[in-house]
Design brief:
Bound molecules: fe (ii) ion
Strand order of the largest sheet: 7-8-9-10-13-14
Distance between the termini: 40 Å
CATH topology: Metallo-beta-lactamase, Chain A
CATH superfamily: Ribonuclease Z/Hydroxyacylglutathione hydrolase-like
Shape: globular
Strand content: 15-25%
Number of strands: 14
Largest sheet: 6 strands, mixed
CATH architecture: 4-Layer Sandwich
Helix content: 10-25%
């Protein structure tokens, strides 16, 4: 498989954007683009692509402003791929659980994993990699207190982790949307595997939903600055251009 796969990590925040493409057909998807779209376009062109053909957000982000809408506009795309639960006000291409997307010979399959947000999805790449967004991080999981009822979010996240992600192959490489800057996170690796996380990730140790909720709400760090406004912007309820 002639797949291009590249991480762009913003060092100050640990946020990660992914470039995924097919050398065979020149099709290219950007997952979780940060707002600096010029940087993303440059990095994509360096990989030999002449255009971006799909833009995907794994969920409505609360900690950074997404560049997805701007990129979609720049490349005249019909919309941003998002989970069908997304209540974004701009044009999205709604994605259902299990849906597939092909970039030439590169196959993506979406796995809906609500919990961190109600509109979260992970992405399987062929049979070797999984993008886990903010559902499963390296040594941690995404927080559940930035929208909706935390207990419901926690129960959903538990189901998404134990019912879906941890059932994937142990040797699958795991790539999250955040590295090195999350709660409980002392690890600066940029990737892991499902097997390593099963063995080492403390957030996966609680055996019941009650224990998991207790873990998720102990020693919680401060919420991101201005997170409600960021969510509003990312839903398209205000123009990103004003920032
Ligand atoms: Fe997030």
């Amino acid at each position: 498989m002639a797949m291009v796969f590249k991480q762009i990590i913003r060092v100050d925040s640990g946020c990660v954007t992914y470039i995924i493409g097919s050398k065979e057909t020149g099709e290219c998807a950007i997952v979780d683009p940060l707002l600096d779209v010029d940087l993303i376009v440059n990095e994509t062109m360096k990989e030999g692509f002449t255009e971006i053909t799909r833009v995907i957000d794994t969920h409505t982000h609360a900690d950074h402003i997404s560049g997805a809408r701007n990129l979609a506009k720049m490349f005249n795309l019909p919309g941003v791929y998002m989970h069908t639960n997304s209540d974004s006000k701009f044009k999205t291409i709604p994605v259902q659980d299990g849906e597939a997307l092909e970039l030439g010979d590169v196959k993506l399959r979406f796995i809906c994993t609500p919990g961190h947000t109600c509109d979260h999805m992970c992405i399987l790449l062929g049979d070797s990699k999984v993008l886990t967004g903010d559902t499963l991080l390296i040594g941690d999981v995404g927080r559940i207190d930035l929208g909706g009822d935390p207990r419901e979010n926690s129960d959903r996240l538990y189901d998404s982790l134990h019912g879906k992600l941890l059932r994937l192959e142990d040797n699958l490489e795991l790539f999250p949307t955040h590295v090195g800057a999350a709660q409980h996170l002392a690890n600066t690796n940029a990737s892991s595997t499902i097997g390593k996380e099963k063995a080492n990730n403390p957030a996966l140790k609680p055996k019941s939903k009650d224990e998991f909720f207790k873990y998720m709400t102990e020693d919680w760090p401060p919420k991101p600055t201005d997170y409600q406004n960021i969510i509003r912007l990312n839903r398209g309820e205000a123009s990103v251009a004003v920032i």
